Amino acid sequence: MTEGAQDRERSWKDAWPVLVALGVVVVAAAGIGISYLIRPADERMSTDAQVQHAINDAYTARNDVDYQKYRASTCAADVASAAFPNESTFVDQNRKSFDENGHIVIPEITGITVSGDRARAQVHWHFDDKPDQKQVTDTVVVREDGDWKVCTS
């Protein structure tokens, strides 16, 4: 390198490639951010994740003794069934279960298979106060009006 090239002062033109690259990154990040704001979280989730979310909602409703959330996370056929509990029965059963066993804990949901608007999964769970009594429940989840809901059949 010659002595004159070393002494040359840097100008803003030397930074031009870096500024262009920075601009591209900012525009790309803004586009991704806007897409996340516009699209609801449920639409960004995979189908398997939506099924897991529906199962989690049903168990969380039981843990919270939240009858309205439980109804909302259950398929229409089950809600219309004569066997579906009314609010007082639901509250009594779940408070008693909580007092005797603690919260329901779901360490994992496995074996998710989706076929159209129906899915099956194995829910691995136990009670907080009885971690050594692990259980696995086969669970059916159906899509109704775009939302996944837990169903008995």
UniProtKB/TrEMBL annotation:
The keyword Transmembrane helix applies. InterPro entries: NTF2-like_dom_sf. The chain crosses the membrane at residues 15-38. Keywords: Membrane, Transmembrane, Transmembrane helix. The keyword Transmembrane applies. This is DUF4878 domain-containing protein. It comes from Gordonia hankookensis.
